[in-house]
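Sample 1 of the test manifest.
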Amino acid sequence: MRLALHAEWTKIRTVASPLSLLLGTIAATVALSVAVTSVLTCGAAGCRSDTTKLSLTGVELGQALVAILAVLVISGEYSSGMIRTTLAAMPHRATVLAAKAVILTGIVAAAGTVAVLGSLLAGRLILPGHGFTAARGYPALSLADGPTLRAAVGSILYLALIALLSLGVATVVRDSATSIGVVLGLLYLVPILSQVIGNPHWQRLLQQIGPMSAGLAIQATTDLRSLPISPWAGLGVTAGWAAAALLAGGLLLRMRDA
Amino acid sequence: MTPTITPYRPAQRAGRDGFPQLLHAEWTKFRTVRGWVIGMVAAALMVVLVALLAGASSVQHDLPAVPIGPGGEPVTDSFYFVHQPLAGNGSITVSVSALTGSIPSAPGDLQPGIVPWAKAGLIIKESTRQGSAYAAIMVTSRHGVRMQDNYINDTAGLPGPVSAASVRWLRLDRSGDAVTGYDSADGTHWAKVGTVHVDGLGPTVEGGLFVASPPWVQGMGTEGSVSTAVFGDPRIQGGWAGGKWTGDQVGPESRSFSGYPGNTSGSFTESDGSLTVTGAGDIAPAVRATLPSGGVIGDILTGTFAALIAVIVVGTLFITTEYREDLIYVTLAASPRRSRVLAAKAIVLGVVTFAAGLAGAVVAVPLGERLARANGVYLFPVTSSSLLRVEFGTAALLAAASILALAVGTMFRRSAGAVTTVIVAVVLPYILVANPFMPDSVSDWLTRVTPAAAFAVQQTLVPYHQVTSIYTPYNGYYPLAPWAGFAVLAGYAAVALALAAVLLRRRDA
């Protein structure tokens, strides 16, 4: 396993695109968070806002870049034929996938930490200037605050889980364009489709099983009762999706010819 | 003498390299790749399936009927009415010396304040049935004197708010179907505000004083408000004989009426010739916020998002596969004028996507509508020309998005980045807009400048200036006109295609 990890680390390290995608994830996440927080205002009439969640809006964009990175880790090998070399060198295929998953989790978690902390820092600096002051019930965002810490840690874990989900899907599908389509479809379509479900019970159920709508419940710090699913349970749903995708990918990787 | 040998000449003519041949080549490529054809069929099916889901999932048989105005549009027709039957022609005059109100502060609590379109004045109405024809002249809290009729028509009169120091006199004069409104600041000098023709008033109308107080719009929600007006000296003249006033709440249980806030209720008291009337509700066209259970065509076509992802993937693969399989060398060797190759691809892809999208939309809309109606769902009315625009607009939206994907795919030459870029550009803004915490300014900006502006082609709801409401894209109101919104996406696609053509010519394949 150590050799497999070393091999995967070398592959990721020596190709230009993973690094630029990681930097892109950080930039995109922070940029969208800054854009959203800088247009928020808390007027004299009062405001009802979840400032932590809004400061972390960028994760909804950052996850798309994480998905590209994760998909390319495996589909890049299929499109270049590298996968045959990899599997010839390491015939135990589950180990290859596990090594890829470990390396991917590590780098995405590292970039995600920077992105999430950057977004929260931006919120902390920008929001007080827009009327979100302690006097109005909005103390500056701080990791010392329990729910904010949970939202921050949860968002990092969420990004890592999206990477694993994308890796699993790409291992099953093998083509990068289709994999990205499937992953972004799973993430983005559930919140949109759930809007048209008129039956509140089914609507809630759909939001409970969607990898993004459930997983991002981890970012909520106010009004937890109105969430379709509790924060950690929601992240658990995303983890379930990631595990299922990786399992399916691992099985197919073993059963199919490369 | 050696015989001359005629060299062999092939009977076949030399291949032509015109643009039709290029189109034919690209069409052949497209239709012979099974995955791409499946992708297009899937896109059309997604539109239909989601329409079925939307139509089947909502059951509203137990809700009260939606009041319908004389023009066939859904209306809010709930207000406090101090009335008496008036037969034949005549006029009614009154002064208004105060209009005050209460708006919600915390849940269950009220504070003094008034909504901008709180209304108090004179109305003559076919009957107290909701949705019946009427003409009215009124003072409003922020928009001066207004004459309104049949829910959607609105004419401005004297400006400025009403108070004890600036009393407004109002008069409504009926002559057959014609109703004329007058206003005055002193009770002697009268100005005509307008004459309207109201069909179906009948020989005897219900006429009198009314107070309405539309919901208070705050952030992402609305809550009921209540207003009180002081009327002085109501005089009934002409052929009308004055009788006893009766106070009634019109439409107390209505889908478009959110009810009285807190412990308030509608009432009127009479003393020394003046009447104090308290009321809530509105006499106006219904909008999404006042009729949230009403369905719109845009909801039925939500499958467009799923279809978008499919056509974006196919559009990208249409070019990136050539790079991956090294077919691009053959393509460009056969047709060295590279911009024409790209143009041929864009045309083939655009036409195929348009056809798939149109097929999906044309099947999805009537199916979804029929299912929704069968389940008792009220659908906001749509003219047949708007319906055609929505269907063709949806197909055009999908076609433009696939061409954008083709162009970005040509620039990037790699699928993953291109697919993500286009999906994020078209779909993510809509998701951000759908976040209920998102401020209106962001929603507005996102649906003006990003490719998601194109979803305006699916808009069928009409905003009304005389109804303060939440006109956000989330509620089905886009800031741009339908085809202007589409033009934003088409502009992105055109610019991307031009850039892609330049890059394709400059770069080695």
